[in-house]
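This part of the workshop introduces the protein records we will be handling. Getting from the letters to the C-alpha cells is the skill we practise here. An example says more than a description, so a record of this kind follows:
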Amino acid sequence: MSEAAKKSPPMKLTPANVLKGESPLVLTATLEPIAGDRFQPAGFPEIGHVIYKAPRKDGSTENVCIVDSAASMANHLETVCQRGAHDLDLVDDLDGMPFIRCVTGDLADGKLPNDKREVVVTSLTEGHRIASSYFLDGAVLNNDGATGGGKFDAELLNKFGIVLPGSPKAHPPPDKWWNVFKTIFEVDPNSLVHGVLFPKWQIKIPRALTAHLEAFGAGRVDRSGVKFDRLGKTTSGQPIFAVDDATAESIRATFVLDVGLIRSFGRKKDESTVGLSENQQEFLVALALWKIQKLLESPFRFRSGCHLRCTALKSYEQEVSLEVDIMTAISVADFGKPAGTDVFWTREGLYREGKPEG
C-alpha cells in the first residue's frame, strides 16, 4: 500500500466538539506565496521587517521573520466578515449577526431613514470595536430612525447594570459580569472573540482568538524602488529608496482559541443560565473557526506584496478540517431582531477638527 493510501483523513473540527474539547485549541496553517518565493512582511520606516534568531532545542538558532502581529491578524480575520475593503456590509453567511455602525446623514423630522444613512465605520473596522468613541459618544437610532434612543454609552451602562449606587462611577462587581458578557454578545459578539477594553469602566476582556504569522528559515532580500516626479513639481527629483522583501523555508500562521475563556462567559446556576447559554458560547467558537476557514480557504492578500495560499492545516501533528455551519449557529444563538445597532452623529460633530495636543 502506498504512503498516500495509508494517509488518514483529516480530523473534522466542529464548533460543538471544540467547545467541549481541550483548551486552548491550537491550529497551524502552512502557507506559501502564490507566485515566486519572495513575500513582503510587515515593516517599519528605517527598520524594515523584523528577523530575529530563535533558539532551538539542539542549541542552534533559526532566523524567524515576523510577517504579521496578533493585532494585524485580528484585522485580517475581521476583513473576511465584510463584503469588501470599501463595502462595510456583512457577507451573506453572517446575515443576522449583530454589529454596530456609526452613521451620519440629513435628518428629516428628527429621523434618519435606513436608506439615507451614510455608514462611516463599523465595530468590525474600528480597532477598539464596541468600545470605540465613535459608538460610545453617539446617539442610538430607534427602530423608526429617530435619534431619541440616548447615547450609546448610557444604554450600555444601563444594560450592564454596573453604575455604583450613589456614585457616577461604573465598575462591575462579580455578579454583574454576566450582564456584561450577555449585553456585548447581543450587540457585538465579534468583540468577545477579539477582545475589548473599556478603561473608564474597568472592563477588560482578553482575546479569545489570537493569531500570528511568521516565516521560518527567513532571509532578507534587499532591493530598490524609484519615485518619478514627471511634472517636476517637487524638489525630490528622482529618488531611489530601499525596499526589503523576504524568503523563507516555511511560512506558518498560528491560531490559538482560548475555549476555556469562552466557556467562562456563562454557566448553569441553580435552574437558570447566567451569562451566555451553551448555544451562544458555541456561536463564538463557530465565528472564530469560520473566520479562520475563510482566511485560509483561498489565497489571501495580507498586503500588496504578500499574497499567500494555505497548503496544510494541523492541530499539533494531526491534519484537520474545519466544519462550520455559521448560518445555523446564528439562527440558534437567539440574537433577536433587529440584528444591528446604528449610532448617529451629525456631520458637524463627526468631522470637526481635533483639539491640538499639549
Remarks:
- The CA atoms of residues 266 and 274 lie 5 Å apart.
